[in-house]
Design goal:
heterotrimer; A: 328 residues; mainly alpha; 13 helices; 77% helix; C: 310 residues; MetI-like fold
């Protein structure tokens, strides 16, 4: 038992280091840009912001007259206390507020797409490997590989074009329509789902192939193992062997992939969100970049990083439960 | 009229390849009578495992059965429908596979791997299954509290007993054992075999036993079948085969292996007549220790693999380190070959303290003088390079032979180890040669640097039985012809007895006994040595079985 | 003597690849595009020229129609191939080289070196790629070098880890120990003994990295983070989106480019499938085996009985 906790703590330590590295990078990027970031901010917002606001901005950003190291520690202190500063583009809303809404939408859209894609893809991969050489196995892998070859934002464009503009079956943009009020009420939830169908479908379709192929590969390797032959020799029913022996073992390496995909999804749904003007983290990031909203950018980068690392840690815990070999 | 349980008639099995199909089993026929122990023996590639897997029809793709019949209780297994096949599996015939670790599902507890057959075939309730599992655990002497363990948490011997318990779960009339003890240490092997035979006496099942060790089979089987290259070349009662056998291959198999008991045979690896071993030690090992860091940062768990080992080797001498897995013998080999650094200890080569003069990495000089031959003939050669490359590289690196004479030198080296004509072998790739040929190349490679010591780490354990003696003969000849000392690492006390001048016995990293080979064998001092000798002597099994019979009769 | 062995490895491997159907089909697809990228621009209109009515559908003069600025879409698609493919393959190359260097050294030397390098690899692996790319690309001056730099920085870690794994596996094999015991220098062992055993892995890593590079590149350019004045597949899509292709229903402005990207990526994927088969000839044996099964019967863990096959 203690070895498991040891393992989890070590992983946590690693993620802490990774987080620190990412945040430090985050700190240095604007300072590495040619020119003085302060001057840039001034130039950008000359006349638009009151001097007090400018100072507040500089302080949040850590661009004070302190030496570099001092700025760094101020920056870290601010981060740890949850003070991510005030957004420039959405002035005077604090960054944390803006991000939390966007985060929810991203988790909703991308998270659910990932879970559906992973589940269906893994299932298809299991079946394809089990029924090697069947029609399913000959058609599905290349077909899904083909779908996966399209840039997924392009598929999003096509889907939007056909089903949105063309057939008018689905809404064209945003997470919910204007006629519903946000909250935990039924019409809102239905509307949110309705708006999510098209973007989610494109994301699922593109990533399905990857999960299927990956599961199929690990299944094929697993099916060559002696314990599968032994299970057959025992006369156990095929379904039991396919699921309890083969898939149960084959899914383990894919789980690590799932962890990494969480990272991608929490940050990379970006392109789909752009096409559909879906107010998630990715969309927000692009807005921030375009508006040169440094506090927002830094805040987003931090939340994305922490969310990714946190998700990975949760996956580590899950693997601990799924694979008894990691417990010893 | 004997009651035939299983009858195999004219069995043919092929493997599909990217090219032409390969015939793995050709026209094999034999019967197994109810209640007997039938042994099937053959070397790697003989088809013995293929035959038994064909019986259960568990041969994985790309195998196909192309002919014959397998009659079980009158029904032909090869014509059965899939449903019937799934039904008779485990209920009529079960199997104990070679590597128990590989046979068990790593993510499911042991208990469930027994209960699944009980649920599937018999529809037991949970209570009944639990009861049965306890009975089975009793049969194989495992404590109940291990029921919820995972396979990787058990020792090798325990795993094998679990697999045995699973095989007995439905009490099938026939149990196939496919090399069940090959991967185990000799002492554990004997214990398990003993257990199996005990159980058989008690429960009365029939056994089909597969192995490459004919001598083992002759100790306890009723009848034996000998397979060579997919064909059954001989099949007879064990007693008759013991006294000679008909087929030349059978004869070869019987005479192939030395024994650790009895007087020394004169025809096997005879001692050289006038050969003097040097007086001053070539290499001195003093208090060698090696600890491996297993896990943990603050309180690290260490494995003390080599504990204070000291011995000398004299020029031209053959010394053998004998021990089972975990004894530290391979670690010592790697320490002397300087593949891993020691935790503490000294090595003095030709009078020079090595770890003082070249502490960080071995000098070229050391590398030339101390060479190594590895256990796995396939793994120790690089499949992408020719034999010539393997021999030439070290020579070029040490600038031993001028470029002009290199080719001839290598050809000579190859012929010395019996690969003739050398020019033919020089251009071959590893996969184009047999295991024995590859090992000869490995020896030639070690020899080409004209070393003073060759460390041979189990050089024959992965080779077919029939050629092991040939390889050992090469080593024996080399020490005379080239005056090179050999450190022979092995788990096989019998071959150590014949090849080596002196034997050092290792247990759990420590030396327990050492001495002149013959003296050690004839009058061992330490209990462990005595155990090893006993386990390696024929008749051990019979003796113990007789003892239990007496105990039982006298009750 | 040494020429024979070099020839044999490379040639054996190449022969395997060149006779593999999937690899051939994929190569054909990819090479066609490369060819078109080289030669095509000489035969088309100037992609930058404003030629005709904007947003007109495909006609005989303009096979793929015109863009929102009246430029010829066919010309843009063909010209766009050049830079996209060039950057894609160059990035793929650098990603594999860096991955092989860091992963290889980490895997071979082990110990402290491995601890440090592994940590570096894992940190890069776990950092969210796309946001990092977006932020970096927005800070740096737009252009192909920025693009390559950003892509390599965010993409090298995955290959490094895979190569490190295989290096560690090979490092533990006896033939490496034998080379060490005969006094061979480490560099020679890595390059002459181990690398040839990693040919397939390096090849498929290169292809995988190229697929990634092409996709990511197009993504960044679509966001406007590339040099929007150049003609690449990504910028084509950027302009198509900017000129409200969806709203105006001008599907021809973005469909050809998307299809081209998909076909090239798909072709590369096929090549990788082919390499898999060559590395693992068992896959071909099993395919041949399956042909012998009676129709409709699946491999259910029961060895089939097939009498008199041919």
């Amino acid at each position: 038992m203690s070895k498991s906790i040891n393992y989890l703590l070590r992983r946590l330590g690693f993620y802490a280091i990774a987080a620190w590295a990412a945040l430090t990078l985050n700190f240095f990027i604007p300072r590495m840009m040619p020119g003085d970031p302060a001057a840039i901010i001034f130039a950008r917002f000359r006349g638009k912001l009151k001097p007090e606001a400018m100072n507040a901005l500089r302080e949040t950003f850590g661009l004070t007259d302190e030496p570099l190291l001092g700025q760094y520690f101020t920056y870290l202190k601010n981060l740890l206390t949850g003070d991510l500063g005030i957004s420039i583009a959405y002035f005077p809303q604090p960054v944390t507020d803006i991000i939390s809404t966007a985060l929810l939408w991203t988790i909703f859209l991308a998270g659910i797409s990932l879970i559906i894609s992973f589940s269906i893809g893994t299932l298809l991969g299991t079946l394809a490997a089990w029924k090697r050489g069947s029609k399913l196995d000959s058609i599905l892998p290349p077909a899904l590989a083909l779908f996966g070859a399209f840039p997924y934002f392009w598929l999003a464009m096509v889907a939007l074009f056909i089903f949105g503009f063309g057939l008018g079956w689905f809404p064209l943009r945003h997470a919910y329509g204007e006629h519903v009020t946000p909250g935990l009420n039924f019409p809102f939830i239905i509307d949110a789902i309705y708006h999510a169908i098209l973007p989610a479908s494109t994301m699922i379709l593109v990533s399905l192939g990857g999960w299927m192929l990956s599961m199929r590969n690990t299944m094929i390797t697993t099916l060559g193992a002696d314990y599968i032959t032994f299970a057959h020799a025992k006369g156990l029913p095929s379904r039991m062997i396919m699921l309890k022996f083969a898939a149960r073992n084959a899914i383990l390496p894919n789980f690590t992939g799932f962890g990494m995909a969480i990272g991608f999804v929490l940050s990379g749904a970006l392109l789909t969100e752009i096409i559909f003007s879906y107010p998630g983290q990715g969309y927000l990031l692009l807005e921030a970049v375009r508006a040169q909203d440094f506090p927002l950018m830094q805040g987003l980068f931090m939340t994305i990083t922490l969310a990714v690392l946190g998700a990975n840690w949760l996956v580590d815990i899950a693997i601990l439960f799924l694979d008894p070999r990691t417990r010893r | 009229m004997t009651d035939i349980l299983l009858s195999i008639r004219n069995l043919d099995v092929e493997y599909i390849t990217p090219g032409d199909p390969v015939c793995a089993v050709k026209n094999v026929s034999f019967d197994i009578a109810r209640g007997e122990i039938f042994g099937l023996v053959g070397e790697s590639g003989s088809g013995k495992s293929t035959v038994v897997q064909a019986i259960l029809r568990t041969l994985p793709p790309p195998a196909i059965i192309t002919g014959g019949e397998i009659l079980l209780n009158g029904k032909d297994i090869l014509s059965m429908s899939d449903r019937e096949v799934k039904k008779f599996r485990w209920q009529e015939i079960s199997i104990v596979m070679q590597s128990a670790m590989n046979a068990l599902n790593p993510v499911i507890p042991i208990r469930k791997q027994i209960s699944d057959v009980l649920y599937t075939h018999k529809g037991y309730s949970r209570e009944k299954a639990h009861q049965r599992i306890k009975e089975l655990f009793d049969l194989v002497d495992i404590r109940y509290d291990r029921m919820d363990s995972y396979p990787h948490e058990l020792s090798g011997g325990m795993r094998q007993r679990i697999v045995l318990a699973i095989a007995l779960a439905l009490m099938p009339p026939l149990i196939i054992m496919d090399e069940p003890t090959t991967a185990l240490d000799v002492i554990v092997e004997r214990e398990i075999l003993f257990k199996v035979l005990e159980l058989r006496k008690e429960l009365g099942f029939t056994i089909l036993f597969i192995t490459h060790d004919l001598n083992l089979l002759l100790e306890f089987t009723d009848r034996v079948g000998v397979m060579l290259k997919g064909e059954l070349v001989e099949s007879d009662e064990a007693i008759r085969i013991n006294s000679g056998g008909q087929h030349p291959y059978t004869k070869k198999l019987i005479g192939a292996l030395p024994s650790a008991a009895g007087p020394r045979r004169k025809d096997l690896l005879p001692r050289p007549e006038q050969f003097k071993i040097g007086e001053k030690p070539l290499i001195e090992i003093h208090n060698l220790n090696k600890k491996f860091h297993l896990s943990g940062f603050i309180r690290p768990k260490m494995l003390h693999a080599v504990k204070d080992v000291s011995f000398n080797i004299y020029p031209g001498e053959i010394v053998s380190l004998v021990g089972e897995s975990g004894s530290g013998k391979s670690t010592i080999a790697r320490l002397i070959a300087r593949l891993i650094p020691p935790t503490s200890g000294t090595i003095i080569l030709d009078g020079i303290d090595i770890f003082k003069s070249e502490p960080r990495s071995a000098s070229l000089n050391y590398r030339r003088k101390v060479q190594m031959v590895f256990q796995d003939p396939f793994g120790s050669l690089n499949s992408v390079h020719t034999v010539f490359h393997h021999l030439a590289r070290p020579i070029i690196r040490h600038r031993l032979i001028p470029q002009a004479e290199l080719y001839k030198y290598i050809i000579d080296m190859l012929e010395t180890v019996g690969l003739s004509p050398g020019s033919l072998f020089a251009d071959k790739f590893p996969h184009e040669m047999s295991g024995g040929e590859r090992q000869r190349v490995a020896i030639a490679r070690a020899l080409s640097l004209q070393p003073e010591l060759i460390v041979a780490d189990e050089p024959t354990s992965m080779l077919d039985v029939s050629i092991r003696m040939d390889i050992l003969q090469i080593l024996a000849d080399l020490r005379v012809e080239k005056n090179v000392a050999v450190l022979f690492i092995t788990h096989d006390l019998a071959s150590a007895r014949y090849l080596a001048d002196r034997i050092i016995v290792l247990k759990n990293g420590s030396q327990v006994e050492h001495g002149n080979s013959e003296e050690l064998i004839q009058s061992p001092q330490h209990t462990y040595t005595k155990q090893l000798i006993a386990a390696a002597s024929p008749g051990w099994l019979k003796k113990n079985l007789l003892k239990t019979n007496e105990n039982r009769d006298s009750k | 003597m040494s020429t024979r062995l070099n020839d044999s490895i490379l040639i054996r491997w190449l022969r395997g690849i060149l006779t593999n159907k999937k690899a051939l089909a994929g190569s054909f697809l990819v090479l066609s595009f490369i060819f078109i990228a080289f030669v095509g621009p000489f035969f088309t209109y100037d992609p930058n020229a404003f030629l005709d009515t904007p947003l007109s559908p495909p006609t005989f003069t303009h096979w793929f129609g015109t863009t929102g600025q009246g430029q010829d879409v066919l010309a843009q698609t063909i010209s766009g191939a050049r830079q996209t493919l060039l950057i894609g393959f160059c990035t793929g190359f650098f990603v594999v080289v860096i991955g092989a260097l860091i992963g290889g050294i980490s895997g071979y030397y082990g110990g402290r070196v491995d601890d440090v390098l592994s940590m570096v690899i894992n940190v890069f692996l776990v950092m969210p790629g796309l946001p990092l790319m977006v932020i970096l690309a927005s800070w740096l001056p737009p252009g192909p070098l920025t693009l390559m730099g950003v892509l390599v920085l965010t993409g090298w870690a995955w290959n490094a880890r895979v190569i490190r794994s295989q290096m560690m596996a090979l490092r533990g094999r006896d033939f490496v120990s034998a080379a060490i015991v005969s006094g061979e220098r480490n560099i020679r062992i890595i390059v002459i003994e181990i690398m040839p055993r990693m040919l397939s892995l390096l090849a498929s890593s290169f292809i995988g990295a190229s697929i990634y590079a092409i996709g990511a590149q197009v993504g960044l350019e679509f966001l406007g983070l590339g040099d929007v004045s150049t003609v690449t597949w990504g910028t084509n899509l950027y302009w198509a989106s900017n000129d409200l292709a969806l709203l105006t229903g001008s599907w021809w402005t973005f469909v050809p480019t998307g299809l081209s990207i998909a076909f090239v990526s798909f072709g590369l994927t096929m090549i990788n499938f082919g390499i898999d088969e060559v590395t693992n000839p068992r896959l071909i044996s099993e395919r041949n085996w399956r042909k012998l099964l009676p129709k409709g019967k699946m491999n259910d863990g029961i060895t089939p009985v097939v009498i008199n096959h041919d």
